[in-house]
Design a protein that fits this description.
Length: 189
């Protein structure tokens, strides 16, 4: 009777475990670290075998019902079956069906509308980035404007950062501010 109950328990937990598959991907930032994945615990006597697609690495939790993953340079877009887990009953050796999860790596390529070159003392100009809603930073940047008077003469890096779903995407451009030439007085003969 004990053996029959153990087999029945194993079958029921395996069936309920297999129903946890989701069609919705986990959405992560590029180079995400510390991503946690878990399935409900089946109790004592079960070992969990996790796999993640390369270049992802499991950094904690191997063998348990919860793992932590560093994704590294996982390609942008949808990565099908990026996380997979199988539960094994340590007494009987019976295994569950694999449960898989897709992982979607966000991608966004912001751009900056070309600006400059400028002459020393030129008026401030509005900075334009795509998509809208980002923030500009850098020498000479004041309230999303580039001000040659504030920056002075030289080459300066202006960065545009857009935040999407908690991920920061940025791009930079170089802005040149040239020194105004100074002429000596006109000479006459």
């Amino acid at each position: 009777m004990k053996k029959l109950l153990l087999i029945l328990f194993t079958m029921l937990t395996t069936i309920s475990f297999a129903q946890l598959t989701t069609n919705n991907p986990d959405t992560i930032c590029p180079n995400a670290t510390g991503s946690i994945y878990q399935v409900p615990s089946l109790g004592a006597g079960f070992n969990y075998t996790w796999t993640v697609v390369s270049p992802g690495t499991i950094t904690a939790g191997a063998g348990t019902n919860q793992i932590t993953v560093n994704w590294g340079s996982l390609p942008a877009g949808l990565n099908t079956n990026a996380v997979s887990v199988i539960a094994t009953n340590t007494v009987t050796g019976c295994q569950s069906q694999p449960v898989n999860l897709n992982v979607f790596v966000l991608t966004l390529t912001p751009t900056i509308t070309s600006i400059g070159p400028f002459c020393q003392g030129a008026p401030c100009v509005n900075l334009v980035g795509t998509p809208s809603g980002g923030l500009f930073s850098g020498t000479g940047v004041v309230s999303n404007q580039f001000c040659p008077t504030t920056s002075g003469v030289g080459s300066f890096t202006v960065t545009y950062t857009v935040t999407q779903n908690g991920c920061n995407f940025s791009t930079s451009t170089t802005v040149v501010v040239g020194q105004n030439p100074v002429l000596a007085p006109i000479q006459h003969n």
